[in-house]
Every structure is written in structure tokens, then in C-alpha cells.
Amino acid sequence: MDIRDLDLNLLLVLDALMDEGTLTRTAQRLRLSQPTVSAALTKLRAALGDELFVRAKGVMQPTARALALRPAVASVLRTIRLDILSMAAFDPVREMGAFTLSLSEIGELEFLPRLLDRLGREAPRASLKCVVRRPVDLELAMDLGEVDLAIGYFPDLVSSVFKQQMLFRDRSVCLVRKNHPTIGAEMTLDSFLAARHVAILPEGRTQEVVELGLAAQGLTRCVAVQVGHFVSAPFLVAQSDLVVTLPRPVAAVFAQICDLMIVEPPFAIPLIEVKQLWHKRFDGHPRSRWLRQIVAENSQNRQSFGTELHGSPELGEAAQDRQHQAAVGGRGIGPG
Questions:
Q1: What domains can be seen in the chain, in order of their start residue?
Q2: Which positions ≥6 away from 175 have C-beta within 8 Å?
Q3: Which pTM was predicted?
């Protein structure tokens, strides 16, 4: 087939249908009628000589041919958007695409509400797509342009192909159920070590700040259960005498949801550095620069939780360390 015979708009339909799984949702995403999307799929099938999608269990399942095409289609569309269309000055009001973010759970709690509000005001026709990528997969996804930004705590993401900006640092606190038999408003080191703990180690993560803080003092805690997600931890704590140690903003939310008590840890824990990371290939693109700017601005204006730090890009690491040491009584130790 001659490339002149292929309408590139059909690739938008193919890409959206891969994500959405139904003609109705694809039409809504592309702001087209369902018959238009159905007609585009018919043209794609004829042009590429394959069914591409078959209906199963109420959704359109991609064929092997469609799955094989997906990386190439995504790359073509991203190249058109970023290397051809976006090199002019970026106008967020006219942006109709999706900003794709890889967020940790901390990132979702910290960023999504304010970011959605900001996009609604400045880029009302754009949308947000949040995905989860393991560090080993994130480099390729960002190189292909499938992910615009990674936001959160990513201690294992150290590839030289990324650029990064530290947005702020969060300190850690402990959560326990109210009327805990051995822990009150203040926790001693002995009661912390005697307690049984929930450890949170998301998939692909090899570093946990609580263990780093304990190891710096030659201590270990008793881990009763290890989970891969933050969301289950407060419910485990609410129904037991377990202790969980979390970033303070997350703990503040969970304490309200499950009626738990926030207690300061009895030893210094390294600060959690929340960053935004992007691929060097897209460092100069106006669209990417605009997105990074509003993420940074929202971070500087985030709600304050107690004495936690506001790690704006202008605040040097040494100054932030001094603030943290003051907050924990001068016993602060630097991150890992």
C-alpha cells in the first residue's frame, strides 16, 4: 500500500481504540460520532488486511497484528505531535491531547487534585492519563513518548537518559489505631522496636526509607506483613496493633479515613524526595516545558502538613536538611 493512500487520522482511531476498548469510549475521547469511528475501523481493516479488533466479553480485543502495530503507531503519533506540531509556541488552550503521567501512590495523592484543577482552567480540552510503570519499563515508555512525566518517589530510577527536578521533600510519621495498648501520643524507641509493623514496598522498589533510618543506627524492626501498595496499610492498622510508617501527607489522609492517630517516629528517617523526571529527548519541547512548569508551581503551593518541608526548586538541599534537622530535634540524617 502506498503511504499516500493512508489517512493518518485513522492511526488516531487505532491508538485510541487500543486504550479504550469500545467504539463508544473511543468516539467520546476523539470527540467523534460512533458511526465515524466504526467507518474508520472499517477503512483500517481494509488498508492493513487484518481484523485488528474482535469483540469479546463486551469489548474490542486487539488481534496479534494490532498489538504488533501499537508501538510503531504510538511512535508515529508522538513524533507528529512533538517533533512537528509542538515545536511552535505551545498554546494550552488549544491542546486536545492527553498528558500521560507515571505516578506513584504518593504522587497521585499529592498532585492529581491540583493538577486537574489547573488543567481545567488553562488547558480545558486536554486530559490526564495516569499509568504505573516499573522503573525497568519506564525508560522505554518515556523514550517512545508514551509517558510525559514520572512524578513521585523513585529511588531506583537512576538512568542517565532522564532529567529531573526535586519538587519537595516529605518527612515520615507513624500511624497507629487510637487506644493502642502500648503507644500513645508519643512513641519511644523501645515501643517502636517492640511493635509489629506493616512495611510498604511497591513493585520494583528496592529501597525503603524506614529501613535506611534504622540501619543508620544499627536497628531493625519486626515486620509482620509486607504489602505492595499504600492503600491497604491503614485498614490493616485500624484492625490491629500494627504500626505503619508513611509520608506525612499520605498519613494525614489515611488518619481521617480510618480514624487513626499520627505519632512522630522516635528516630530520624531520611526525607522522601518527590521529583518529576522526564526524558532528555523532550527537554526542549514547549509542551513538555509547560507541563513541568505547572507541576513545579503546584508543588510550591501545596497544602502544608505540620512541619513538613516545601522543597521548591529554589530551596537548596543543604537548607532543606537544616530545616528537617530542626523539625526532628537536630537528629536528621541525609537520604540514603
A1: 3-85 (1.10.10.10), 97-167+275-327 (3.40.190.10), 172-263 (3.40.190.10)
A2: 233, 234, 237, 243, 244, 245, 246, 251, 254, 255, 260, 261, 262, 263
A3: 0.62
